[in-house]
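Re: How this chain folds, sequence and tokenised backbone to follow
Notation: Tokens come from a learned vocabulary of local backbone shapes, not from coordinates.
Start of record: The labelled sequence and token lines come straight after this line.
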Amino acid sequence: MYRAIYRSLAGALLATAPSGMGGEAHPTPAHEPPGAQEFAIWPDGLPLIVPGEVGADGRKARFLIDTGSSRNAFNLARHREALVAGGEESVMTPTGIQKLKTYKGIPASFGKQTIPETERYWGQDFSLMEVYFGSRLDVHLGTPAFAGLTLDIDCRTGTLKIHQGSVEPDFEAVDFDFTMVKGVPYFKADFGDGISANLVIDTGSIGTEFDLEPEVFEQLVEKGLVALGPNKRSASANRITEHRHGRAEALSLGGLVVRDAGVAELARNRMGLAALARFRVVIDFEKNLLRLAPRGDGFGRPVDSFEALGMAIAFTKPLPTIMNVREGRDAGAAGVARGDKLVRIAGFEGGQLDAGRLYELVTENLGKRVEILTKGKGGTLDSVVEVKPLK
């Protein structure tokens, strides 16, 4: 369960937020605890990716912070030749049970953390995830990489801090105890009306804010707490599934209320990064505590390009691909179709687009009309779409 923790903010300095975050001032502790490492991250629910090195020669690599995974995993599409095959395991993922092969690890490190070569890894093809994340991925860092560490995730300022051991936060927060079950952290969420669920704290999920198992999802729909919308598609490792999706006007989360939250019906209960991004988040793997503090900057929820633009975009090369088009919106009415390539949007070349730049383009143009140029089977199409504010 949760317990409210009230602390005063002491010994703080005012610092200016990085560009793209509005330049607002925010309090920053005057002294970092010993051993703290800081990484720059994309704000507001985009993937938590940090730089690192792999192999005996220390090749540069990109690591995904994935607290929803019980094991570290290497990208077979990039590192298959360096890995030594082991056994096989059945793993529960949000899209169902998958069988994954295990491999003996190769040297890997991120920041001050080194993953022992004796560590056993899963091997997965991350090609599909790279498309959805818009970024190269070499290693998924699962919970074995965070043993005895504390993750301090502040999407408002675009920073991730990793501390050795527990760190007492200097801000007011609501605390939830979590339990490690089969290697991943679960905490109990009370949604109200007698409905509760144990949710995985999953920083590796950047899609829907909350994924819920069918029984819990149906209870929320029957109680009128979730309004169904169009079905959506989700990717997990190398699998895509279509599922029911809806929005909750006000979802109780113990001592907190999450307003206008996206909820999907999938095979595992979890709170993803898109929901965690609403808060200042501390995940303490030494004390098994999840700490959530409202950001206080008016942030409602992450930008969803499917809602904002009426089309879902995947960052394929050489041009992004339109993965889905929403009925009744400008893009579909103009003839943009699933599978079309995005050549240009709001004057920005599609070939240079990534998750971060799309975030900026959408937030800079909310409520405006922007030109897009797409290319499909019928040739190129020049059209105008409204960037709708999120309701």
Notes: The chain has a mean pLDDT of 79. The longest strand covers residues 84-93.
